[in-house]
Design a protein that fits this description.
single chain, mainly alpha, 3 helices, 72% helix
Length: 58
């Protein structure tokens, strides 16, 4: 696990504040962003893109 991966996980925790329903929605959207863009790693940028598409934390 690299620094980008650890930072992405910290970003998920910060955005969702432990709300399991929000975690589920965000992880589902992260999977979609990765699939559409053919990405295989988790980065903070992917988390932010998923957050923006779900309108979380605005």
């Amino acid at each position: 696990m690299g620094i980008a991966h650890a930072t992405a996980i910290a970003t998920i925790v910060r955005i969702t504040a432990g709300n399991f329903r929000l975690v589920d929605r965000l992880l589902t959207q992260i999977e979609r962003v990765q699939a559409v863009n053919d990405l295989h790693t988790l980065t903070p940028e992917i988390v932010d893109a998923a957050r923006e598409s779900l309108l979380i934390g605005h």
